[in-house]
Amino acid sequence: MIDAYGSSELRRRFLPDLCSMAKFASYCLTEPDSGSDAASLKTRARRRDDHYLLDGTKAFISGGGRADLYLVMARTGEAGPHGISCFVVESGTSGLSFGAQEKKLGWHSQPTAMVIFEACRIPLANRVGAEGEGFKIAMRGLDGGRLNIAACSLGGAQFCLERTIAHMKERKQFGTRLADFQALGFRIADYATELEASRLMLYRAADALDRREGRRHAPGGNGQAACD
To answer: What is the residue extent of each domain of the chain?
Structure first.
């Protein structure tokens, strides 16, 4: 999102560390009262000369409390999607705080917490794109994010399938390995087929996204070049 929509200054400041994974960024869209209806978000950024004052709360934020940067969607104008802008909030900004870490059934490797903004002073230069472009930027960000989640889920499913097959080769019932029961073999074949179909669907979606972004960044496209 910073690469595609940020100014040259933002990209020079943040992309080297993000691309090398020396630093991590969090995506802040969901709020306690706006999940699927993201355009109704209430976090607000009020412009004051060369900065914005950011107030509001984001919920269920991946990396909350641990990330180095927070890409925050906040309302700068009218109600609805056209009144939303995007900002980079750096860790350590005065007024930035976090809720308790969420207790989750899975995905323990990724911290998740509420992110709270109380009169956070955000430099004008930290706005990503123009005012009112935040919702479009957020939706574009979700396109890649959903593919990331699908890839992580496929990895988990592949691990489970491999563990299941290993167990079936070792475990015996009635003196026979589970792997030698034809009915169980059919079920494993179904699981493997569904997993492979999902993987191909993910590859196809990723390819479609790459092609679309390639067209957008090509000479004559409606976005700036991906790299200076």
So the answer is: 2-132, 137-217
**CA pseudo-torsion sign 52, 75, 2, 64:** positive
Is residue 79 within 8 Å of 62, Cβ to Cβ?
no
φ/ψ (deg, to 5) at 44: -125, 140
Considering the entire predicted model, what is its pTM?
A: 0.79
CA distances to 36, 45, 218 from 139, rounded to whole Å, are 12, 19, 21
Residue ranges of the alpha helices (H) in 63-175?
134-170
Q: 124 pLDDT exceeds 90?
A: yes
For the segment 191-226, what is each residue's pLDDT rounded down to a tens digit? Answer: 999 999 999 999 999 999 988 877 766 665 555 443
**C-alpha span between 124 and 45 (Å, rounded):** 11
The token pair at 57 is 């709360």
> CATH top-level class for 2-132?
mainly beta
The C-alpha atoms of residue 198 and residue 208 are separated, in whole angstroms, by 15
Q: 26: closest CA among 73, 63, 59? A: 63
The highest-level CATH class for domain 137-217 is mainly alpha
Work out whether strand 176-177 and strand 96-101 pair parallel, antiparallel, or are unpaired.
Answer: unpaired
What pLDDT digit, counting tens, does each position of 134-144 carry?
999 999 988 88
Q: What is the pLDDT of residue 227?
A: 35
The single-letter code of the amino acid at 211 is: R
Identify the H or E element spanning 7.
none
Q: Is 186 left (phi over 0), alpha (psi -120 to 50) or beta?
A: alpha
CB 172 within 8 A of CB 178: yes
User: So what's the pLDDT on residue 220?
Assistant: 59
Q: Taking the CB of residue 122, how many other CB atoms lie within 10 A of it?
A: 24
